Amino acid sequence: MTTPAPRAAGSPVRGDLFDPQCPTRQLLDRLGTKWTSMAVKTLADAAPDEVRFAELRRRMPGVSQKMLSVTLRSLTRDGLVSRRVEPTVPPRVYYRLTGLGLSLEAALAGLRSWAEEHMAEIDRANEAAGQEADEA
Fold first, then answer.
1. Rounded distance, CA 95 to CA 83, Å?
2. Which residues does 23 contact at the CB level (< 8 Å), separation at least 6?
Protein backbone atom coordinates (compact mmCIF):
# COMPACT_ATOMS: atom_id res chain seq x y z
CA MET A 1 0.00 0.00 0.00
CA THR A 2 1.32 3.44 -0.87
CA THR A 3 1.24 6.45 1.39
CA PRO A 4 -0.57 9.45 -0.04
CA ALA A 5 1.58 12.42 -0.93
CA PRO A 6 1.42 15.24 1.61
CA ARG A 7 -0.97 18.00 0.63
CA ALA A 8 -0.42 21.69 0.84
CA ALA A 9 -2.24 23.53 3.62
CA GLY A 10 -5.62 24.74 2.44
CA SER A 11 -5.73 22.52 -0.64
CA PRO A 12 -8.88 20.43 -1.08
CA VAL A 13 -8.83 16.84 0.14
CA ARG A 14 -9.06 14.31 -2.68
CA GLY A 15 -10.52 10.94 -1.92
CA ASP A 16 -10.16 7.40 -3.14
CA LEU A 17 -13.47 6.45 -4.70
CA PHE A 18 -12.60 2.75 -4.39
CA ASP A 19 -12.14 2.94 -0.61
CA PRO A 20 -15.49 2.27 1.13
CA GLN A 21 -14.39 4.58 3.97
CA CYS A 22 -13.63 7.47 1.63
CA PRO A 23 -15.79 10.51 2.45
CA THR A 24 -16.21 11.25 -1.27
CA ARG A 25 -17.57 7.76 -1.89
CA GLN A 26 -19.90 8.04 1.08
CA LEU A 27 -21.21 11.38 -0.20
CA LEU A 28 -21.73 9.97 -3.71
CA ASP A 29 -23.63 7.04 -2.18
CA ARG A 30 -25.99 9.52 -0.51
CA LEU A 31 -26.36 11.75 -3.56
CA GLY A 32 -26.75 8.93 -6.08
CA THR A 33 -30.26 7.89 -5.12
CA LYS A 34 -33.29 8.56 -7.31
CA TRP A 35 -35.09 10.27 -4.42
CA THR A 36 -32.21 12.67 -3.81
CA SER A 37 -32.13 13.59 -7.48
CA MET A 38 -35.90 14.09 -7.59
CA ALA A 39 -35.98 16.12 -4.37
CA VAL A 40 -33.18 18.42 -5.56
CA LYS A 41 -34.89 18.87 -8.95
CA THR A 42 -38.26 19.61 -7.33
CA LEU A 43 -36.76 22.14 -4.93
CA ALA A 44 -34.71 23.71 -7.75
CA ASP A 45 -37.86 24.17 -9.83
CA ALA A 46 -39.42 26.04 -6.90
CA ALA A 47 -36.33 28.13 -6.06
CA PRO A 48 -36.04 30.57 -4.49
CA ASP A 49 -39.37 29.70 -2.88
CA GLU A 50 -39.83 27.15 -0.13
CA VAL A 51 -41.88 23.98 -0.55
CA ARG A 52 -43.87 22.29 2.19
CA PHE A 53 -43.23 18.62 2.91
CA ALA A 54 -46.69 17.52 1.71
CA GLU A 55 -46.28 19.44 -1.54
CA LEU A 56 -42.85 17.88 -2.14
CA ARG A 57 -44.40 14.47 -1.65
CA ARG A 58 -47.17 15.26 -4.15
CA ARG A 59 -44.60 16.39 -6.72
CA MET A 60 -42.52 13.20 -6.32
CA PRO A 61 -44.74 10.29 -7.42
CA GLY A 62 -43.92 7.02 -5.72
CA VAL A 63 -41.95 8.37 -2.77
CA SER A 64 -43.13 7.23 0.64
CA GLN A 65 -43.41 9.64 3.53
CA LYS A 66 -40.58 7.82 5.32
CA MET A 67 -38.25 7.82 2.30
CA LEU A 68 -38.86 11.51 1.65
CA SER A 69 -38.22 12.28 5.30
CA VAL A 70 -34.95 10.29 5.28
CA THR A 71 -33.86 11.96 2.02
CA LEU A 72 -34.61 15.48 3.25
CA ARG A 73 -32.89 14.81 6.56
CA SER A 74 -29.75 13.70 4.73
CA LEU A 75 -29.82 16.68 2.36
CA THR A 76 -30.31 19.04 5.30
CA ARG A 77 -27.46 17.44 7.27
CA ASP A 78 -25.19 17.83 4.23
CA GLY A 79 -26.05 21.54 3.94
CA LEU A 80 -27.81 21.16 0.58
CA VAL A 81 -31.30 21.95 1.86
CA SER A 82 -32.53 24.32 4.54
CA ARG A 83 -35.50 23.42 6.72
CA ARG A 84 -37.87 25.83 8.43
CA VAL A 85 -40.58 24.83 10.89
CA GLU A 86 -43.56 27.01 11.75
CA PRO A 87 -44.71 26.20 15.29
CA THR A 88 -48.35 25.54 14.43
CA VAL A 89 -50.47 22.52 15.21
CA PRO A 90 -49.61 20.49 13.26
CA PRO A 91 -46.23 22.08 12.48
CA ARG A 92 -45.71 23.38 8.96
CA VAL A 93 -42.32 22.33 7.62
CA TYR A 94 -40.75 24.09 4.64
CA TYR A 95 -37.69 23.19 2.57
CA ARG A 96 -35.55 25.03 0.06
CA LEU A 97 -32.20 24.48 -1.62
CA THR A 98 -29.18 26.28 -0.23
CA GLY A 99 -26.56 27.77 -2.55
CA LEU A 100 -24.66 24.49 -2.27
CA GLY A 101 -27.82 22.58 -3.20
CA LEU A 102 -28.35 24.78 -6.25
CA SER A 103 -24.81 23.97 -7.37
CA LEU A 104 -25.63 20.25 -7.05
CA GLU A 105 -28.73 20.75 -9.21
CA ALA A 106 -26.50 22.03 -12.02
CA ALA A 107 -24.46 18.81 -11.90
CA LEU A 108 -27.56 16.61 -11.72
CA ALA A 109 -29.11 18.47 -14.67
CA GLY A 110 -26.12 17.39 -16.76
CA LEU A 111 -26.63 13.78 -15.74
CA ARG A 112 -30.37 13.96 -16.54
CA SER A 113 -29.58 15.42 -19.96
CA TRP A 114 -27.12 12.62 -20.64
CA ALA A 115 -29.70 10.01 -19.60
CA GLU A 116 -32.38 11.54 -21.81
CA GLU A 117 -30.00 11.74 -24.77
CA HIS A 118 -28.84 8.14 -24.45
CA MET A 119 -31.93 6.35 -23.10
CA ALA A 120 -32.84 4.86 -26.50
CA GLU A 121 -29.33 3.39 -26.84
CA ILE A 122 -29.52 1.96 -23.32
CA ASP A 123 -32.94 0.46 -24.08
CA ARG A 124 -31.59 -1.16 -27.27
CA ALA A 125 -28.61 -2.59 -25.39
CA ASN A 126 -30.91 -4.02 -22.70
CA GLU A 127 -33.20 -5.51 -25.32
CA ALA A 128 -30.24 -7.10 -27.14
CA ALA A 129 -28.88 -8.50 -23.88
CA GLY A 130 -32.29 -9.94 -23.07
CA GLN A 131 -32.51 -11.61 -26.49
CA GLU A 132 -29.01 -13.07 -26.08
CA ALA A 133 -29.96 -14.45 -22.68
CA ASP A 134 -33.14 -16.00 -24.12
CA GLU A 135 -31.17 -17.65 -26.94
CA ALA A 136 -28.55 -19.09 -24.58
1. 5
2. 13, 15
Which of 2, 108, 95, 117 has its CA nearest to residue 48?
95
pLDDT, tens digit only, all 136 positions of the chain: 444 444 445 555 667 888 888 888 888 888 888 999 999 999 999 999 999 999 999 999 999 999 999 999 999 999 999 999 999 999 999 999 999 999 999 999 999 999 999 999 999 999 999 888 888 8
Helices (H) and strands (E) in the chain, counts: 5, 3
Q: Tell me: cis bond preceding 90? Omega within 30 of 0 counts.
A: yes
Burial label, 69 (beta-carbon count in 10 A; 0-12, 13-18, 19+): middle
Phi and psi for 49 in degrees, rounded to 5? -75, 160
